[in-house]
Amino acid sequence: MGRRALQLLASLAGVAVLTYAGYRLLALNATTQGFAYLMLILIIASTWGFPEASIASVAATLAFNFYFFEPIGKFTIEDPRNWVALFSFLTTSLIASRLSTEAKQQAREALARQQDVERLYTFSRAILLIDNSEPFPKQLVLKLAAVFELGSAVLYDRRAEEFHRAGPLEFEGLDEQLRDAALQGTSFADPAHNRVITAVRLGSEPIAGLALQGARMPDAVLQGIANLVAIGLERARAQDLASQVEAARQSEKLRTTLIDAMAHEFKTPLTSIKAATTALLADPNRSSESRTEMIKIADEEAEHLTELIDNAVDLARLDTAQIHLQPEPANIAEIVNEVVASMRPRIEDRVVTVRCEEPCLAMAVDQNLVKLAIKQLLDNALKYSPPDTPISIRVHDDAGAVAVDVTDYGPGIPVQEQSRIFDRLYRSPSVRQVTGSGLGLNIAHNIARAHQGDLTVTSRPGETTFRLTIPVKARGDQR
């Protein structure tokens, strides 16, 4: 039995109970019983609605006639005035039930409108709180489905030509309608499945298509949602453009700073070379030891200049939004040994030990870049540690990654500076006397990140370790 049928039976039962109480138990007069009937009908109308109240009104009128108007026990009325009273009762009960039902309906509609306004407000606040952890359209549709308790929500972004879906239910088969809504501004409704598709417009131009599946909502609410989505998408686009402009501005500023810094760094060895050659030319009769010393100075500064140029070239290669790797199978321990061998003139008599603790199988990396990163770390250790102290390089496994630890026994890096040493051009005030460009660690850090790895530092007075980690995604055949 349906809900409406049960409510009708309950209404008739209420009239029967009230009739029995008024006639048998309380022996009420006609006036009091009429008010009791009217109260019952109003309660029924406000609780269930007009159909139940109208049935109760007719039943109450018949019971009123049968039990409370003379002659009792018959559906006739002796006094004509009672006909007027009975008709007035029936009319009053029907009108009162209709008014009560309409008031109830209006209250429901007002509550629904209030809930819709609250949800639109909540959705607008949620748009403002969207962060950059995931694509903006994806977060937007997730919050839309959550706030309005939708079974499914799909957003087709016209600019990116991407679909973003949210909600527990599948919304398939209407992708073409969504594209049409985004391109042509069309709408589509599927009442059988509680689905609706509408265009998201910015002004008069459609910029996206929005599909919703769930409880039916007024057109004004649907349009409000579309407007908020349009505002959110445009806000995200404006932020992206602002970020691009700021990135371009910062890039230009960084480029200018870098040029100035490199120009300054280039001048230092050039000045020393110029001074040495000028001294040799000015006094050809210098002693053999003096000439050798001057030539040695020029040679060392020329080597320094070569290093600066190499760093500038490497930085130019790495100074892009994305480093393009050329992976090929390589053994990290062999790469480390090759770097140490290539830097032997720079190392001279320093003790550099290389220890591989795990069987180092081949893994796919960009060999040239990894060599460059390890070279920068070893060069950094040579620069900032006393010449009579050893340097150790350890290759080992680190939770699914190959790690290369380069340890020196210099003065260490102050704690407050350890978070900045990978910044481009940053150099500690305590090491200004050591020649350098402030680029080496930044280059190594970028190379590690390009391989989805990392470069970290652990330092205390007397010992500093830089750890380069590269994840082992696939050994030997990474693509």
Explain what the structure shows.
This protein is an alpha+beta fold and 479 residues long. It has four domains: 3-111, no CATH class; 132-217, Beta-Lactamase; 244-317, Signal transduction histidine kinase, dimerisation/phosphotransfer (DHp) domain (Helix Hairpins, Orthogonal Bundle), CATH 1.10.287.130; 325-471, 2-Layer Sandwich (Heat Shock Protein 90), CATH 3.30.565.10. It is built from twelve helices and twelve strands. The strands form three sheets. Strands 2-1-5-4-3 form a five-stranded antiparallel beta sheet, with helices on both faces. It has a five-stranded mixed beta sheet with strand order 7-9-10-12-11, with helices on one face. 27% of the residues are buried. Residues 474-479 have low confidence and may be disordered.
Give the topology, please.
Layout: H1 3-25, H2 30-47, H3 50-68, H4 80-128, H5 136-147, E1 152-157, E2 162-166, H6 175-184, E3 188-190, E4 195-202, E5 205-213, H7 219-282, H8 288-318, E6 328-330, H9 332-342, H10 344-347, E7 352-356, E8 363-365, H11 367-383, E9 391-397, E10 401-408, H12 440-450, E11 454-460, E12 463-471
Parallel strand pairs: 7-9
Antiparallel strand pairs: 1-2, 1-5, 3-4, 4-5, 6-8, 9-10, 10-12, 11-12
Helix pairs in contact: 1-2, 1-3, 2-3, 2-4, 3-4, 4-5, 4-7, 5-7, 7-8, 8-12, 9-11, 11-12
